[in-house]
Amino acid sequence: MKYKEIRKILLFLLTSVLIIGCVNFLKLSDLRPNDYNFPNHQKKAQELIQEMASAHNSHMWDSIETYSVILRDEFYGFFGKQAHPFPEQEMQFTLSYIPKSTEGRLKIMNGNKKGETWGIQSWDTYKLNTNEDPILTENKDLKFWIPTYQYFIELPNRIQEATAIDYIGQKIINGVETEGVLASWNTVKPQNNIDQYVLWIDSKTKRLVKVEYTVRDFYKFITGAAYYENYKDFDGFLLPTEMPVESNLVKDGLLHKMSIINFERDPIEKNKLLPFNINKNKK
Fold first, then answer.
1. pLDDT of residue 263
2. pLDDT of residue 218
3. Other Cβ atoms within 10 Å of 279 Cβ, number
4. Which stretches of the chain score pLDDT less than 70?
5. Could you tell me the sign of the dihedral formed by the alpha carbons of 103, 53, 209, 32, in that order?
6. CA of 161: how far to CAs of 86, 100, 155, 243, 278, in Å?
7. What is the DSSP-derived secondary structure letter of residue 144?
């Protein structure tokens, strides 16, 4: 069965979920707390996300031109299976990126499509053929997944670009005292095509503990949350090695879990990730 057909089935099932009252997908999701009023403490929010960037050594992203990550992603249950376009529930990739951009590649390292490589440049997707030549090929699913993985990896630095932020209070998460920052662009109110984020930052270490987010690119009602756990220093880059992900689609348990196995700085020339400066083959 084609992935688009499965997505139609998923939409039908989500309609059923609405009927039984578990999720209201007619409503635009909103991460603002129920008792929240804007503005609360914007200056404190700005200080917190800057402290988070410092705690994560975010300045290191300016010291490299490219990087690669070996990432494992394991999806769980029915909704986990429908949430991704990959052939197996447990996937491993080599991801290569130009930091602070949307340019990168995903190489499948296991399963039926082992060795298949997809990339994205200027929001156009391409696939490497058997000669490793890039061929522009539309793939809406990987247009979402390739930059999404990158954003999770770089999030403590990339969220500094948010133009609308505010402080929303304190919360204990897995025994850790955290402080929350609501972040978006233009306004903290929900918007049709712009995501909201809530960053829960360790009050002591200033490391990111959990990020809540909307997923406007898929469905307007979906929300998710990723935990940033088991941090490891990769040659100065402080990264979580485990990122369990929750979703409002799943009543109990996880939707999937991302794990960073390895990180390598400047393993590939920048122009390799910008192939259409050189070669503009089209399918």
1. 98
2. 76
3. 11
4. 1-25, 278-283
5. negative
6. 31, 10, 10, 22, 30
7. H
The number of C-alpha atoms within 13 Å of 26 and in the hemisphere containing its C-beta is: 6
What is the structure's pLDDT at 6? 44
Helix axes 140-158, 42-55, angle to 10 degrees: 100
Q: Do residues 69 and 203 touch, judged by C-beta distance below 8 A?
A: no
Please tell me the predicted confidence (pLDDT) of residue 164.
98
262-273 residue pLDDT tens: 999 999 999 999
Q: Which helix (H) or strand (E) holds 124?
A: strand 124-128
**Which tokens in the block code for residue 15?**
């309609």
Question: For residue 118, how many other CB atoms are within 10 A of its CB?
Answer: 23
Between CA 48 and CA 116 the distance in angstroms is 41
> pTM to 2 decimals?
0.90
- At residue 161, φ and ψ (nearest 5 deg) are -75, -10
260 alpha carbon, distance to own chain's centre = 13
Tell me, what's the pLDDT at 98? 98
**What are the C-alpha distances in Å from 136 to residues 13, 68, 127, 139?**
34, 22, 6, 9
